[in-house]
Amino acid sequence: MTTWFHSWRAAVRIARRDAWRSKGRSFLVLAMIALPILGVSALDLTVRSAELTPAQRTERTLGAADARFSDAQTGGAAILQDPAGERNTPAGDYDSPDKSWPDGPTDVAKTIPAGSKVLTDSSGAAKLTTTHGLLQTEVRELAAADPVARGIMRLQEGRFPEKNDEIAATTRFLESSGLSVGSTLTARGFDRTYVISGSYELPSDLTAQQVNALPGAFLAPYAKAVEKAGLPKPNISTSYLVKKAGGFTWNTVQAINARGVLVTSRVVVLDPPADSNVPLYQKEDWVYENSGGTDAAALAAVGTVVGLAMLEICLLAGPAFAVGARRSRRQLGLVGANGGARSHIRAIVLSGGLVIGVAAALVGIVLALILTFALRPLLEDYMGQRFGGFTVRPLELLAIAALAVLTGLLSAITPAVTASRQTVLASLTGRRGVRRSNRVLPLIGFGAIMLGAAIALYGSVVSDQSVLVAGGSAVAELGVVAMTPALVGLFGRASRWLPLSPRLALRDAVRNRGRTAPAVAAVLAAVAGTVAVSTYAASRDAQSLAEYRAKLPYGAGAALVTEEGGRDVPAVRDAVQRTLPVDVRADVSRIAVGKPGCDPYGEGEGCGYYEVVTPPANECPLWVSTPDGSDPAEKYTDEQRRALNKDWRCRSRDGYGVHVDNGLLIADAPLLKVLGIDDPGAAKALTDGKLLSFYRPQVDRNGAVGIKLITDPEAADRAREQNKPVPGELKSFPAYQVPGSPDSYGVKSVLSPAAAKAAGLITVPLGAFFSTDRMPSTEQRQKLDAEIAKLGSNVELTVEQGWVDENDLVLLALTVFAGLVTIGAAGIATGLAQADAEADLKTLAAVGAPPRVRRMLSGFQCGVVAAMGVVLGSAAGVLPAVGLRLTEEREQMRSYQEALDQGWADVGDVAPHVPIVVPWETLAALLVAVPLGAALLAALVTRSRGALARRAAH
């Protein structure tokens, strides 16, 4: 034990001195290992610091209260909830057709125990005036200065509101609005003025655009003002912060759940019950946590990535350790001459990896601690929440440090074994000797290639498992790495046809495979990953282009506003006209049922909606409602469902394009020009007061289309649940069915404003469709976005630009990454080659070779390594991408056939197109530009003349 300790102690001391003596090489290896350690450690510190303890979470949601009571919107029906109060469901069985799902408000205040201290916490929305225009903002009414609410909001400046004409605002709102503490604030359509008394932040949502007022100071009077203006009242949600002696136990929470109230209890969150005591988790088909299979797959993916990263670092760092061992061969020979065994030689070289690994671990972790602590405010802003604290988990950092040490040791294993096999005489005299290549490793590599290829082939052709394809490809790539020395030897056969300098470089690389193979393997691994991802991305892009469906004709656009009865539509139309190169503008409106300010979906008091009626004879047999609520497609065979999929009645109700409520627009003939509808009969039909139809199933046998106005949404819902006709006023319009199947981009019907007015329909402005004489520039789009932002409206803006490739930057980044790794690996191998070939270079100079030969030889040595790695990596990288695409093709084809059998397909659906596209631009850059750039760079940084040397003494 003592002998072992002293021998390793001496080896570590020697390795430390060698590392300090060769600072450049040591720094290079240390940086390669320390940078990933720095990233992983910083990520660990950030994630752990961002994780909140249950106590911290309850402080941010409950403040100092014991519980928060919320309405579950079940009309008082009993509910089941989880201990955290985040999920709930009605307690009864409401899946049967004869039972309706419970819905409606519950009087939460009646469930609060007597003697409790209660704070109301209400939230709504309003458009507030800013220095730039209007901003849709959340308004929260909570007595934030009350001790019960302490911790929910963190005051940054000033104070929380104390009067009804004061509000506080989040720092993000003040930044966006251009306001500050002391400024005045009003809301659109509301005549009250408020003074900003302070600024605060929500610790768990730093991006919140929110203002805070005292309870009753804003939302209630604002709702009255809005309703008086004929607009729907804002939705207001209210919960209650309750403080009670003893808190609320799990049994108490369940008792309150029986009255339809959701409770978030501090006691329960800090000490949750066992899963077996939570009725929600015992409910049939309730899933409350991720499956173990998902976690296992994630761990496997992380392990694979970490393993491949370690392999890449080892392949890059290995030659650097070989350089150190080669330059220290006389010192190692002296150790052997003084009685040192081969194990001592291996220990010295391995200690170099140990020293660098420990140093890299220390540097990486210390820098991670410093940077994470210093950049904490920036990280919190980026993540949108404050950290619970600066959390350091020593065991996890030790594991990361151990990873760095392991990487250093693995990098030094091959140089250590190689150095220990040299004889003492060869080490002392500087002779390299002749050593036969390992014949077992290529056989193992070939076997791994065959095994990996078989697994990938099985995954892509038989099992449709992409995990098998990825795993098999990884095994095959490791096999190629193991075969690299043999493959390098095959490249040497081409040297006979090359000029002098490249011939010398290639033969030197083949002769010294111990330093060439790791560098080539490192380039191979990086290039293979780049080519695989690039091929897969290019293939997905080709598929996306083939499947792309435009929302509007090229260059056309739409700007639609559905809120507040189209109050901001004139301003939006004007902004579009002023900022974009508009050719034709078609103003469009929509049908409103009830108050003009109602939204299209009938939400709000006094609001309704309409439906375009599909005649019973035109309903698709696969979709028709059944009395018992069963699936109507079940009574048909697969062949019958496939036949019905081609029936015109089974055309999808939802067209692809700009979303329009019921597909119906109130507009004149200019809309047809914007949509590219070239049919004189269509324009004439609009002029004659007919409804223009692009959707055949909605036209009845009399050539008319029915529009049902539903003024009582609740009665309509009850009628649907009972399979009864929906009550409402039916208006019928003579229709003109546009011949053929022109693409109407989601618009199924067009009715002129005159015809709508004659039928007694209420219409409100919706927006505009427009065509352009040229594609709007980025600057014009930005101007339009700025104009719309000033209005504070939710504008649905669409400008059709055609298919856009979103992977260009990704492919460029991957190519640059592969190029950098290639140049780095080739540079390391070149440096080692120059160290080995110094005597040969001096011989060339002695026999009269010009100085440029040294520079050219260095460039070709670097280029040869880069070229071999790029060629092998390109070949290895295409295969996994092809396998994954074949797997996707089988999956998509199976889904398509299943959709046909089940009757889910649409008339226009076609068989999936899954192309395989090779990114020739990326391959050209890798195969030509990268090796050429590496060679030129190496030639430029190499000195033409070497240092003079003394004649060796004999």
- Largest beta-sheet details: 10 strands, mixed
End-to-end Cα distance, whole Å, is 42 Å
Structural class: alpha+beta
- Number of distinct helices: 30
What percentage of residues falls in helices of 4 or more residues? 40-55%
Give the strand tally.
22
Which regions are unreliable across 5 or more consecutive residues at pLDDT < 50? 290-294, 947-954
- Share of β-strand residues: 5-15%
Residue-averaged pLDDT: 80
CA-based gyration radius: 37 Å
Shape: globular
Task: Provide the fold topology.
Layout: H1 2-21, H2 23-50, H3 54-62, E1 67-71, E2 79-81, E3 88-90, E4 117-129, E5 134-141, E6 154-158, E7 166-170, H4 171-177, E8 184-187, E9 190-201, E10 210-213, H5 219-228, E11 237-243, H6 250-257, E12 261-265, H7 266-270, H8 279-282, H9 292-327, H10 329-337, H11 342-374, H12 376-383, H13 394-420, H14 424-429, H15 440-463, H16 466-482, H17 484-491, H18 500-511, H19 513-547, E13 557-561, H20 569-579, E14 582-592, E15 609-613, H21 638-644, E16 664-666, H22 670-675, H23 680-687, E17 691-693, E18 704-710, H24 713-721, E19 729-737, E20 749-751, H25 753-758, E21 762-772, H26 778-791, E22 795-799, H27 808-836, H28 838-846, H29 852-902, H30 920-941
Parallel strand pairs: 5-10, 7-9, 16-20, 17-19
Antiparallel strand pairs: 1-11, 1-12, 2-3, 4-5, 4-11, 6-9, 7-10, 8-9, 13-21, 13-22, 14-21, 15-18, 17-20, 18-19
